[in-house]
Every structure is written in C-alpha cells, then in structure tokens.
Amino acid sequence: MSNFITLDKLKTKDALEGATVSFFQTDYQTVGYTVMKAGAEVPLHQHPQEAIDIVLEGMLQMTIGESTGILIRGMTSFVPSNVPHTAKAITDCKVITILHPQRKI
C-alpha cells in the first residue's frame, strides 16, 4: 500500500441504495470513504470497532446510542465499541470513517 492515497481512485462498492464505499487498511485500522446521495441511510448496526466519522462534504444526521446530531463539513463523530448507530444523508455527503482495531472487509 502506498503512503499516499487518492480517495476518488479507490475501488468502490455499492454499500447501500444511494451510497458507495471504498476501503483501505493499515496494520491496525480500516479506513472507509463513503459517498452518499441525499436521502441515503445506513441502517441501525453495531460492531466491536470504535469508529470516528469525519464529514468532508454535505450534511449528515447520525444517531449514536440515544443521541442524534447533525454533522456538517469539518465535523467529527465518535462511535464507541458495540454502540448501535445509524446515519442519514440530509444532502449529498462525503464521509471518512476510521475503524480501530482493523475490521475484516
């Protein structure tokens, strides 16, 4: 893996209706790059990894446990291990997610 990665050149997968996701991994982390159309929703789920979400573009509504917030460009959320969470793109969005420890993809 190169030390320099161009997000728009990573191989994409259709993650869910209205969204694509790309991944790269380091020895200890998984990094996801998600491009979401307005209205796309990530269903309620949880995983053992901690997650940090960074909004690069757009407006994203996230619910983490019992808390709901709106994130805009430059904002970050933290999802603790095994806490149920969901997300919905209010506008078209680009989001980076950092998962630790590494997640099998």
UniProtKB/TrEMBL annotation:
Q: What is this protein called?
A: Cupin domain-containing protein
Q: Which Pfam families match?
A: Cupin_2
Question: What region holds the Cupin type-2 domain?
Answer: 34-98
Q: Which InterPro entries does this one have?
A: Bacilysin_H2HPP_isomerase, Cupin_2, RmlC-like_jellyroll, RmlC_Cupin_sf
Q: Read off the SUPFAM superfamilies from this record.
A: RmlC-like cupins
Organism, scientific name: Chitinophaga barathri
